[in-house]
Amino acid sequence: MFGFPLFIFALSQSVNRIVGDENATFTADEIDQRSAKDGDYAGCFPQGCLHFDYVVNISESHTLDICTATFHPSETPGNTSFDTVREKYNTSSNGSFEGTVHVDYQGVLGTVCADDWDLDDAHVVCHTLGYPRASAYYTNAFFGEGIGEIILDNVNCTGSESNIAFCQHNGYLSHNCEHRQDAGVTCDGIVPVRLVDGASPNEGRVEVNYQGTWGTICDDSWDINDATVVCRMLGYPGVSYALVRFGETTGDIFLDDVECEGSETHIAQCTHGGYGIHNCDHSRDVGIICSGAAKLKVRLVDGPDESQGRIELFYFGSWGTVCHYSWTSLDSEVVCRMLGFVGAIAYSTSSSYGRGTGEVLLRWPRCSGKESSLLECDPYYDLDDLRVRLVGGKSDKEGRVEILYLGTWGTVCDDNWDLSDANVVCRMLGYERAENFSCCAAFGPGPGPIVLDEVECEGTEANIGHCRRSDYEAHDCDHSEDVGVLCIGHGNCSLNTTQNETEQEQQQQR
C-alpha cells in the first residue's frame, strides 16, 4: 500500500533536535508543566513535542509558536517538501546518526514495527533525514521502545524511495506488533562535501550533497569554526581563509545559519537552520581555502570483524571504493599498515564483502608494499582517461553526464552528441551499452564548468577522452545544453576504465 509522505521526526536515544522559534521564552512554571526532565525537544506534532522517549503536552498556541515542522499530505511523490525544524545532532563517536525511528502520520506520532525490516528500509529513512545511506538496521527495540502508536508494519522498500510512505506496507496503523518490536537504524553520518571553482583542490565554493543533489551554504553565522569542520571533512588539517567568494552558482541553497564549535567531524553535527531553509541568494555562497595537504583515510566495511572487509577510501569529502583490477598482496600490505595492522594475510578481488557505493576512487595503485599510505604508491594514469558519473537520474543507470577535470566535476555540451558517444560513457561505467541519450539538460543543468563540447566518438573508444572533441573547457554552450544518457546492463567497478586498458597497464608494469 502506498500513501502520503510521512514526516520522520527523529531517531531517539542518541539524537537531540532543537525545534521552533529560538526567541520563544517560557516561564519556569510553563517548563515544569511541559517537562519532567532536562534536555532539548526532539520534534513537534499537533498534540505536543517529542523529547527522546516521552511526549510533552503543550497548548495549541505554544505548539504553533515553537514548531516549524509541517506536513503536506496533498503533495505527490517526487514533489515532496517539508518545512523542517532547527537541528542539532548529537552523534556517536564515528559520526553516525542512530536510534528508534519515529514518524508522524496526520498528527499521530508513532513507530515502525520491525517485521520484514531490512537495510533497504533503513536507507530510505536515512535519505529522508538527509544522510547518504544507512550502515545498519535494528529490530526488537534495540535503542529502546518508542512512544505513541505503531504507524507502519511489514515495510518493504526498494531503497530508492524518497519517503518511507511510498514503500509497500500493511497500511497505516495496521499491525500485529508491540513496541518491543520497534525498528531502528544507524545512518552514515557523512554528508558529502566538495569545493568547487577554486584554482586548486584545497579551495573553492563549499557545496554539500543532500539527497543526491549538490547545493551551497549561505554565509549567515559562518566563521572559522565552520570552515575548520569542512576542511577536516576533506582531509585538510587547517584553514587559511574562512570566507572567500568563488562566484555564484545556480541550484539549491541547502544550509544556512551554520554554527559549528569546530570540534565536529562532520558538518551534519553542527547546528543549522534545517536542510533547504534559508533567507539568502547565491551572492552569499560560502567559499573557503584549506591549508596543508589532504590525507587519505581507509576503512574496512561489511566484514565479520575490524580486520577484514571491503576496502573503502575517504578522499576529498566522500567515501569510495577501490577497483579490483591488478590489485596485489603488496597493495593489501599498505592498506593493512594504514589501519594499524602488521600486514595482510589474504585478499579477495571478487566483491566477497559486497558491492560498495559512491565513486571508484582508485585503480591499480602499483605499491611496492613498503609505503605507509596508498598516496605514496605510483598509480598509472593517462591524462585523457577521464572519469565520468551520472547525476540527477532516478537510478544509477541514467542521468546527466559529468566529467572530472582538474579536480572539478563539469558537464558535456550536446553539440553532435549521439548514441555512439553515449555508448562510450555507459561502457566506462561498466554497463553493456546505452539505451538512449538526451540533450537540452533533460536531467537538469549542471552547476560546474562545461568540460567537453563537439564530442564525436566512433563508439569503440575505451574512454570519452579518446574521442574527437573540442579542447577542454572550450565550448559555445550554456548548461541548458547539458547531455544525459540511459544505460543498459549492470554497472561494475570498471568505472572509467576497461579490461583492455588494464591489460595494457599490466604489460607496461612488466
Structure description:
- The chain is α+β, with helices and mostly antiparallel strands and 510 residues long.
- The protein folds into 4 domains: 181 residues, Mac-2 Binding Protein, CATH 3.10.250; 99 residues, SRCR-like domain (Mac-2 Binding Protein); 80 residues, SRCR-like domain (Mac-2 Binding Protein, Roll), CATH 3.10.250; 102 residues, SRCR-like domain (Mac-2 Binding Protein).
- The protein is 13% helix and 24% strand.
- It is built from 7 helices and 25 strands.
- Strands 1, 5, 6, 7, 8 and 9 form a 6-stranded mixed sheet that branches. Strands 10, 11, 12, 13, 14 and 15 form a 6-stranded mixed sheet that branches. Strands 20, 21, 22, 23, 24 and 25 form a 6-stranded mixed sheet that branches.
- Strand 5 and strand 6 form a beta hairpin.
- The longest helix is centred in the last third of the chain and has 11 residues.
- It is globular, with a radius of gyration of 24 Å.
- The chain starts with 6 loop residues before the first strand and ends with a helix.
- The C terminus is likely disordered.
Short summary:
The protein has helices at 28-34, 60-66, 119-128, 224-233, 329-338, 419-428, 499-509, and strands spanning 7-11, 43-45, 48-51, 54-56, 97-105, 108-112, 134-138, 149-152, 184-187, 193-196, 203-210, 213-217, 238-241, 252-255, 287-291, 297-301, 310-315, 318-322, 360-362, 387-392, 398-405, 408-412, 433-438, 450-452, 484-488.
Give the helix/strand class.
alpha+beta
> Mind telling me the CATH class of the largest domain?
Alpha Beta
Number of strands: 25
Q: What is the name of the CATH superfamily of the largest domain?
A: SRCR-like domain
Low-confidence runs of at least 5 consecutive residues: 9-95, 494-510
Determine the mean pLDDT: 73
- The fold-level CATH name of the largest domain is Mac-2 Binding Protein
Number of self-contained structural domains: 4
Architecture of the largest domain in CATH? Roll
For the report, how would you describe the main beta sheet? 6 strands, mixed
Overall form: globular
Amino- and carboxy-terminal Cα gap? 59 Å
DSSP strand content: 15-25%
The count of helical stretches stands at 7
**Roughly what percent helix?**
10-25%
